[in-house]
Design goal:
With 261 residues, the chain is of the alpha/beta class. It has helices at 50-59, 76-79, 82-89, 108-114, 171-181, 202-215, 228-237; strands at residues 9-15, 31-36, 39-43, 68-70, 94-96, 118-120, 125-128, 131-133, 137-138, 147-148, 151-155, 159-164, 188-194, 219-223, 258-260.
Length: 261
């Protein structure tokens, strides 16, 4: 694969469990609006669709401007919103794990027939220059088994930005998969999204924190399913890296918040 880079990256949380801003709604789920140079990408859709549409209006964002749609996995708190936005995204490229529509997406088989360009991540994909989908992997920390994908962005002069839905494949595995795209030559700069450590014990969390420290991480923006216990440990271990922390149970990168990297 090439090693082209993205110069400007802006990420807005459209859906997350907590919504401190009055004009935004929250629900158990996740959705990001990603602007990478001149490309606009929707990452996941939240659970209901109504919350996503409301928060799009509050953010003054328009689905008609999208260049691609990425679905991290088919659990309904990430895929449920598809049913209400299908008419607006059906003609843009979609990236997801194989078998996604046969699993938990509400009315998935009908929805899949409406989307004109579905791309399954059976291998590493470069969807735009500098923007990657590592090969799909099976979930290992979820009672509801499926396959999962993540996004990796090569940010110029900074390093790898990893965007995750629930980190069901395990955060260490996800980081290793991302770094392998670049043969380990580019450091991890930022990790954003649900880290699914809410059911992990303290020893597991400490081991992951140690791995993150060794990776040279500069920005950590957890949310959604990360878990309050993990957040407390991470906040102590990464006082500078977790610049967006707000004292809530789900993390730092809440509905309506934007980060520019």
């Amino acid at each position: 694969m090439t090693s082209q880079t993205i110069k400007k990256l802006k990420i807005t949380t459209l859906v997350e469990d907590t919504s401190p801003k009055r004009s935004f709604w929250g629900e158990h789920g996740l959705s990001f609006w990603i602007e990478a140079d001149n490309k606009k990408i929707l990452f996941d859709t939240g659970q209901s669709g109504e919350v996503l549409l409301h928060n799009l209006r509050a953010s003054k964002l328009d689905l008609r401007d999208l260049d691609a749609f990425v679905l991290s996995h088919s659990h309904d708190d990430h895929s449920g919103g598809i049913k209400l936005i299908i008419d607006q995204i059906k003609n843009i490229p979609m990236y997801c794990a194989s078998g996604a529509f046969e699993e938990y997406i509400p009315d998935g088989k009908r929805v899949s027939k409406l989307i004109s360009d579905i791309n399954y991540a059976r291998e590493n994909l470069e969807i735009f220059p500098g923007i990657y989908i590592p090969q799909e992997q099976k979930t290992i920390n979820s009672p509801v088994p499926t396959k999962e994908i993540n996004m990796v962005i090569n940010l110029e002069r900074k390093g790898i930005v990893i965007i995750v839905g629930c980190a069901h494949h395990g955060l260490v595995n996800i980081i290793n998969d991302a770094m392998s795209i670049f043969k380990g030559r580019i450091p991890v700069y930022a990790i954003l999204g649900g880290l699914h450590l809410k059911d992990s014990n303290k020893e597991e969390i400490i081991n992951i924190v140690s791995f993150l420290k060794d990776s040279g991480l500069k920005i950590l923006a957890p949310n959604h399913c990360t878990g309050s216990g993990a957040l407390r440990i991470m906040a102590q271990a990464f006082p500078q890296e977790m610049k967006l922390v707000i004292n809530t149970d789900t993390g730092s990168f809440h509905t309506g918040r934007t980060i520019q990297l």
